[in-house]
Every structure is written in structure tokens, then in C-alpha cells.
Amino acid sequence: QVQLVESGGGLVQAGGSLRLSCAASYSGRIFSITGMAWYRQAPGKQRELVADISRGGLTNYADSVKGRFTISRDNAKNTVYLQMNGLKPEDTAVYYCWISAPGRGISWGQGTQVTVSS
Fold first, then answer.
1. Closest to 17 measured CA to CA, from 70, 58, 57, 61
2. Which stretch of DSSP H or E encloses residue 5?
3. Both ends of the chain: CA-CA distance in Å?
4. Residues 56/50, Cβ–Cβ less than 8 Å
5. Where does residue 75 rank: exposed (0-12), middle (13-18), buried (19+ CB within 10 A)?
6. Distance (Å, whole) CA 28 – CA 93
């Protein structure tokens, strides 16, 4: 069973920064992961893609976060990161880690709350 453990959420003032981390494991072992991504869901809204990154490091960002957020990954640790700078109140949401792994399908993290105060 794939396990995703997220960390790094919290409360921050507008203009501040947070770094989210998501570590993936399968029965306690490192395994091959292709796509990794971060999604978010604000109250009353649909879940939306924030950023994704391929195994080779190709990235894609939602227009609303371009220039402020940076996604990265450490393949040796099966970990994906989201550095969030210049946070705005509209970034407030539950952030979910997502991975796609050959033979193991897709998996979601439990979610971590990010709250940005004005």
C-alpha cells in the first residue's frame, strides 16, 4: 500500500512563505514514481491543480501561482516539495499531494491546511 505523508502547512501572514513536503513509500520501501503534483481545495470550490513535475523535472503551474510557487522533487527520497512565496489570502486551502506510480496507480495524500491571513 502506498503511503504519502505531508508536512509543512500552517498559518502565515500575506506575503509570507511556506514549504510543503510529501514523502511517498510503499511498504516502507522506495519505489519508482513518474508524476508528482500538488492540488488544493478551498472551501466551496473544486479541487484544482497547483503544480506538477515529471520524473525528469519538467514542471507545470497554475496561472495563479506562476512566479510565486516552485515545485521540486528528490527522486532518491520519493519526496516532492512545494515552495510557496508571496502567499495571498486566496491561496488559503487544503493542499494535497498526488503521485502516479507504474503498477500502483495514483495516490493522494491526506491533505495539509494552508491559511493565509490578510
1. 70
2. strand 2-7
3. 40
4. no
5. middle
6. 29
Cell of 57: 523535472
In this structure, the strands spanning 59-61 and 79-84 are unpaired
pLDDT confidence bin for 66, thresholds 50/70/90: very high
Residue reference for cell 491546511? 113
Given a cut of 80, is residue 97 above it in pLDDT? yes
Residue type, 71: I
What pLDDT sits at residue 63?
A: 98
Amino acid at the residue 101: A
Taking a C-beta distance cutoff of 8 angstroms, is the pair 40, 96 a contact?
Answer: yes
Do the Cβ atoms of 40 and 50 come closer than 8 Å? Answer: yes
At residue 89, the 3 state secondary structure works out as helix
Greatest Cα pair distance, the chain, in angstroms, is 44
Dist CA 5 CA 109 (whole Å): 6
Q: Kindly state the average pLDDT of the residues 23-48.
A: 91
Specify the amino acid at residue 53: I
